[in-house]
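ping. complex inputs:
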Amino acid sequence: MSGRLIANLGRNTPLAPEDGAAIEALLGAVRTVPADTELVVDGEGATDCHVLLEGQAFRHKTLPDGRRQIVFFHVPGDLLDLPLVFLDVDYNVASLTMCRVAPVSRAKLADLIEARPRIGRAFWRMSLQEAAIQREWMVGMGRRSAYARVAHLLCEVFQRLQRVDLVQNNRCRFPITQTHLADAAGLSGVHTNRVLQQLRASGLIELRSRELIVRDWNGLAAAGEFDPAYLQARSAPSPALAGPHRAAPGWKPS
Amino acid sequence: MSGRLIANLGRNTPLAPEDGAAIEALLGAVRTVPADTELVVDGEGATDCHVLLEGQAFRHKTLPDGRRQIVFFHVPGDLLDLPLVFLDVDYNVASLTMCRVAPVSRAKLADLIEARPRIGRAFWRMSLQEAAIQREWMVGMGRRSAYARVAHLLCEVFQRLQRVDLVQNNRCRFPITQTHLADAAGLSGVHTNRVLQQLRASGLIELRSRELIVRDWNGLAAAGEFDPAYLQARSAPSPALAGPHRAAPGWKPS
DNA sequence: CGTGAACTTGAGATTTCTCAAGCGGGGTGG
DNA sequence: CCACCCCGCTTGAGAAATCTCAAGTTCACG
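pong. complex structure:
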């Protein structure tokens, strides 16, 4: 269960069993928090980072007058506040569902990253992939229609959930409300609602009562101009590993 | 001259002279390229990263049909393709002016980052700061008006140029055309033009013939809802020092 | 002095927003 | 067990922001 982070890291970078063990050893007492709770608050000088073991969450920046921009959706296995290891965090993280979260000492994590190249590399890749996802969102918000933007977002979340085995039969739990989707896409709630209706009417998805069913993946990807390349979590230098899915060689959650 | 990268890294992380020397030692033969040249092309499996020693450049992602989204502006001292050290790059970089660029072996840079914690930390911070800037752009594109977005962009570029001493008397060279600005803000060229006229009419800026003069910094910052905190001028207390939390609030000329 | 890129301007077309209201289901107190 | 309430969703319609198309105009540069 708490092997989620390791599995996630290991997806892109081969980790030896002792690497996994070293990371696990840093995890503090698991905390369970309800939905709609702020897990990470910026500018709080926290001493711990947070690993999301279970549940879903999102990063957001909220302006003084209440406008909110969601900048990332988290799936299990994500480190919610990697920046905190070396800087301050500039965003908040809130839970979408009940979540299980484990703290990791920021100082110890920094030490581990610096002491073990393989682990360091794994975190570098995780961090750089986040940045790549952010860039893709920028393309969406700057240059794609509302329709494509929402479709793209659905594709991304769906695919990332798929990677952590949270999709069965093209169907997954989907605690992201239309308001969240709107705040992520930079749209109003009303317009987001209309766009979703179009997606439904086109037979691409079903979405209701916190569940998403993708009826036509190719159609949805086309609607969203979704090219999964930017998620392609493969390491360039050591193309030793195969397929995009599965595999965390050398380490299995115990 | 080629100390630019070191100066840039050292701005946030104390580097010892030997660290600087180690980095310098990796720099390859400096290349001079004209304006409007692609410096970095995604998916090319390059073996070298690129340091921008002089000149200005921008990162962009261009869609098949020609729509373009600029995702970052570079100033001297920037590493143009840090992601390449550990992954593939997912964007292109093009020059805005004539540029001087030095190659750095990706493998050697990776080794150096892993071998020297202080250097590694410096690159981590650089990378995380980029990510923070990207998030701020997301907020702009998703939740700010065209007017605020453009003003914010001007503030950011201006301030980053200031840090590398490219501003004198509130005045700097500004090779970013209205079309670039439009592609960065996610606006049409026409609308960007109109927004700039408003900014000029409000007495906030002068902008013509590739030069920007900020006439009213506070006014411009207010128009752009610009809070420099996200640029993280200062490093968070390093875990080793374990000082009380002191988030770098907007820097103030003291 | 010619040329092209960058910048301006005008005006109608679209997308997206805002306001306002109504619907629906699940959770809760009575 | 039922009524009520709240949140998330839906719908309608006018308003606003932004876009596109289509011409000019300016200016650096050869």
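Residues 145-146, 187-188, 190-191, 194, 209 of chain A lie near DNA strand C (CB under 10 Å from a C1').
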